[in-house]
C-alpha cells in the first residue's frame, strides 16, 4: 500500500468512527423543554423565536465550548451527508442541531426531508410545528401539532405546544384552555403543565 492509499484508508476509518458516534447518539425527545421556555416560568432552554437564554427562567446560557462543539458537529454531519445523502438519522440529527441553534429555515427543510423518507414520525412532526412557530407561521405550526395528535392522541407534547401557540402567540385563550384541559387529563401532576396553566391564566388576566 502506497502512502496516498494509506492516508486515504486512515481518513476513511476516522470519518467512519466519527459518523458512527454521531449517528448512534441517543436522540431522545426533548419536548416540551425545547419549546416551553417561550413562556415565563416554564422550564426549558433558550426561548424559540429569538429569545435570549437569560430570558428563560430555569435555563442556562449556552457556553462557548458547547456552542463550538455544536458548530463542529454540524460541519461534520454536513460533510457526511454530502457523501451519504439518504442517511435519515444523520438528516434528523442535523435538523435537531439546527433546531437547538434556532436556525429555523434550515431545520424546517431538514425535518421535511426526513419526513419524506420516514413519514409518520410523531416527534419530528411536532418538532416541525415548533420550527414553524419560530418562523412565525402559526397556522402551519398548528397544523403540525394537529397532525401529531391525530396520529397519536396520547402525544401530550404536541398538545402542550399547541396550547402555547394558541394562548401566547394568537391570544386565543379559550381555545388554549381547552387544549390545556385535555393536557391535564393526559399528564396529571406534570409540573410543566401546572406551570403552563398558571402562566396562561396570568397572560389572560393581563390581556
Cα-based radius of gyration, to the nearest Å: 19 Å
The geometry reads as elongated
Mean pLDDT: 78
Contiguous helical run count: 10
Q: Please identify the structural class as seen in this structure.
A: mainly alpha
Per DSSP E runs of 2 or more residues, the count of β-strands stands at 0
Sheet with the most strands, sense and barrel status: none
N-C termini distance: 74 Å
Q: Give the H and E element order.
A: HHHHHHHHHH
Helix content: 55-70%
Poorly predicted parts: 3-31, 36-62
User: From the structure provided, what is the oligomeric state, counting identical versus distinct chains?
Assistant: single chain
* Amount of beta strand: under 5%
Could you explain the architecture of this structure?
The structure is a single chain. The protein has 207 residues and is mostly helical. The protein has ten helices and no strands. The chain has helices at 3-23, 33-36, 64-83, 88-100, 104-117, 122-134, 138-151, 156-169, 173-186, 191-206. Helix 6 (122-134) packs parallel to helix 8 (156-169) and helix 9 (173-186) packs antiparallel against helix 10. The longest helix has 21 residues, at 3-23. Residues 3-31 and 36-62 have low confidence and may be disordered.
List keywords for this structure.
207 residues; mainly alpha
What is the gist of this entry?
This protein has 207 residues and is mostly helical.
List the helices and strands and how they pair.
Blueprint: H1 3-23, H2 33-36, H3 64-83, H4 88-100, H5 104-117, H6 122-134, H7 138-151, H8 156-169, H9 173-186, H10 191-206
Helix pairs in contact: 1-3, 3-4, 4-5, 5-6, 6-7, 6-8, 7-8, 8-9, 8-10, 9-10
Amino acid at each position: 500500500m502506497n502512502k496516498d492509499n494509506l492516508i486515504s484508508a486512515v481518513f476513511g476509518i476516522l470519518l467512519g468512527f466519527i459518523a458512527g458516534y454521531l449517528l448512534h447518539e441517543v436522540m431522545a425527545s426533548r419536548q416540551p423543554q425545547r419549546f416551553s421556555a417561550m413562556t415565563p416560568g416554564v422550564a426549558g432552554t433558550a426561548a424559540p423565536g429569538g429569545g435570549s437564554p437569560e430570558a428563560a427562567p430555569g435555563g442556562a446560557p449556552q457556553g462557548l465550548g458547547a456552542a463550538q462543539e455544536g458548530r463542529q458537529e454540524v460541519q461534520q454531519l454536513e460533510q457526511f451527508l454530502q457523501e451519504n445523502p439518504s442517511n435519515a438519522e444523520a438528516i434528523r440529527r442535523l435538523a435537531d442541531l439546527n433546531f437547538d441553534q434556532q436556525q429555523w429555515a434550515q431545520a424546517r427543510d431538514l425535518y421535511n426531508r426526513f419526513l419524506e423518507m420516514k413519514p409518520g414520525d410523531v416527534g419530528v412532526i411536532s418538532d416541525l410545528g415548533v420550527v414553524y412557530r419560530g418562523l412565525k407561521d402559526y397556522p402551519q405550526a398548528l397544523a403540525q401539532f394537529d397532525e401529531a395528535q391525530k396520529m397519536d392522541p396520547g402525544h401530550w407534547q404536541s398538545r402542550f405546544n399547541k396550547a402555547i401557540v394558541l394562548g401566547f402567540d394568537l391570544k386565543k385563550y379559550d381555545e388554549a384552555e381547552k387544549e390545556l384541559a385535555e393536557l391535564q387529563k393526559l399528564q396529571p401532576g406534570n409540573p410543566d403543565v401546572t406551570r403552563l396553566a398558571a402562566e396562561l391564566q396570568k397572560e389572560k388576566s393581563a390581556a
